[in-house]
Structure formats: structure tokens, C-alpha cells
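Hi V.,

You were right to ask for the full record rather than a summary. Here it is.
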Amino acid sequence: MTNTTWHAQYPELGTQPIPIEPYISQEYFELERERIFRRAWLHVGREEQLTKAGDYLVRDLPMARTSVLIVRGKDGKIRAFHNVCSHRSNKLMWSKGGSCHVFSCKFHGWAYNTEGNLTFVPDEDGFFNLKKNELGLTPVACDVWEGFIFINLAAKPQQTLQEYLVELGQSLVGYPFHDLSQTRFVWRTEINANWKVAQDAFQEAYHLAFLHKQSLPDSFSSKENPFCHSFAYKISGSHRRMSIYGNPEHKPTPIEILAQRAGSSIVKRDSAVSELPPGVNPERSRYWSSDIVTFFPNFSVIVFDGTYIFHQFWPLAVDRTLWEVGTCFPKAQNAWQRFSQEYSKVLTRDVLLEDGSTLEMTQSVLASGAKTHYVLQDQELLVRHAAKAVEDWVGFYRQHEAQH
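Predicted structure:
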């Protein structure tokens, strides 16, 4: 594995230290609210969560100061609406999800169908020239990519979802997301750290040999590659991807061998390269373990052979984040496969606990002023790109330069 090559391929990113201010500044956080989370396409769920007409999800989005209702209509189409009644702006649906064909406001009983149309108003004759056909739920742009549901809160999104995902999204078409989403284990936790601090932890493999030396002692490093150098990077607009090295000489434990025979895990090493879509292991390397694909602003999928993990980092405050993690598998056909999935789930949990151990510790000292910049190395290319992508949307430093 060679060093100091990836930054040379993306000279527009530079090599200088990056400022810490965006991780601690309330002003910067407020700009992120308006210029990123109210304009970018945001992942909010999977099609499998809305299997039949009337199935719905509610996503509260405090960073965008709204709540969104996502529902499958009678025509099979998935739509999204601001979760706000047209009468006195009460929050319409209070649960996180369910199934129904009429959404009725608990305040005064106004009711809407799955297409967002206002269908019933109690004591309708008491209103003045009420135009029910103009008082439906406020729509939110909604589209689906490979079974993932995205919304965009802008009144008129500047790009379609397909245009927004550019070639990085296209390169993953054909990965069996649907088959691997039949069984999902999801964790949610609030952490006292900026959302970018959390996301940065999954934008580099530099930490693997150190932070994960207990859970993954030799899975992602070897004598030939002691620092887990990744062997492929791709930057596409505001999005990014890297291919993680896997040690082909890894010696699995007996229980690991049992689990792998019945299914997949994050340390499996016998992928059928020819069956993967072009965006998965693009180098077709025997050293491949996984790809981390991050779609701006806050959604990452880590694709392995036979399983995938997703991360979502939702800003709650400048120093607080809702972290959602899911590990996904096909439907188990027997008890052995179910055991394999449980083993992989628990191993993933242990890795995530190690990942999470640094986040609040980092945030607790960022505002000390002891350091003003991060110093990054070549393998932290995607951390640097993430910072640039955020600033490209926010324009904090451009704005301050213009004022002075």
C-alpha cells in the first residue's frame, strides 16, 4: 500500500489543516439548518417499511423545524407531506408510524386521505367560503432510489433525486438492497457531539487498527498493511466512497467460522466479485472487505458481500446528534442462518460501541480553544472532502470574507 497519493488525485481539496469552528459554532449550525437540511435530499426510510396502502412513517426533523408524514397511497405511490393540519397547524400524526387510510387531527377532527386531500371538516357550515380542495396537506418532494426513500424540504428542489445522487448512486444499482433489507436490527441513541464529529468517524479507516483492536484485531490490518490503508476512493459532487482493506490472512475463530458458513458477516472474505455491481469493490480487489458510501449530507451505507449497515446522523443541536444505525440481512431460512445474523449483529454492536466511545470525548474538548484546526493525513481524504462539501453548501467563510 502506498502513501500520499489520494490527495494528489483531488488537488482541489488542498492539504492544509481544516478549521474546528464548524463543529462548535452556533452560527454555523444555524446556517446548516437552512442551507443544507432544508435544501438537500434526505434519506428517511425504506420501501419495506411501507408495504401496503395506508402504511405510514413519521420523521420528526428538528434540525429543519418540521415533522414529515410519509405514506403509501392507494395507487401504490409513496408521498410525503408536512405533518401539519391545515386548520390550526396542529401536528397531525403523533405516532412514529403505523397503518391507516384516514389521518385525523386530534385537535378538531379535520381528516385527510393518503393522497393528502382534505376529506372531512366537522361543522363545515360554520366556516366562511371554505375551499377544501385548497386545504390539503402541504406536499414535500419525495422519491425512491434502490428502495431508499428520500425527501427534499425545498419548495422547488434544484435537482431531482437521480440528478442529486449523480454517478455514485448509479454505480450501486444492482446491489441487493431489497433482499438484504428483510431483516433489520436498528439502534438509536442521542450523543453529545456535533453531527459532523460523528459522521467523520466513519469517513476513514485510519482508526481501525487502534480503536478496534479488541473487536477486530486482524480483520482489517496485516503486516503488509498495518494502518489499514484503503485502496480506492471516489468523490462525486458532495458524495464520497472508499473501499476498505480486508486482511486475506485473517484467522477466524471457531464460532466465527460457524456463523460465516450460514450467512454473511462484516469480516467475510469470499465475495463473488463478478456478481457485484460496478460501484461495489470497483477495483475488483481480493483485499476488499467493504465500501463506505456517504450520500450528502448525513446518510452512509457500508456494503459488504451479503449484508449492509447504514448510518444516519441527525443534528439536534450544535453539540447533540441523533445517531441511527441499522444492520440488514435477508430473511433467515432456518435457525442456523438466524444464529449467523445474531452473531454478526452482536459483533457490529461491539464495533459501534468502540466507535461511539470517542465521539463525546472529542466534542467535550473541541471548544477549549486548545486546538483550532484538525491536521489530516492522506487516508483522511474523505474527512477533508466532507468539510469542504458542508462549507460549499453553507458558505460561512465566503460570507465572512465578503463582510470584511
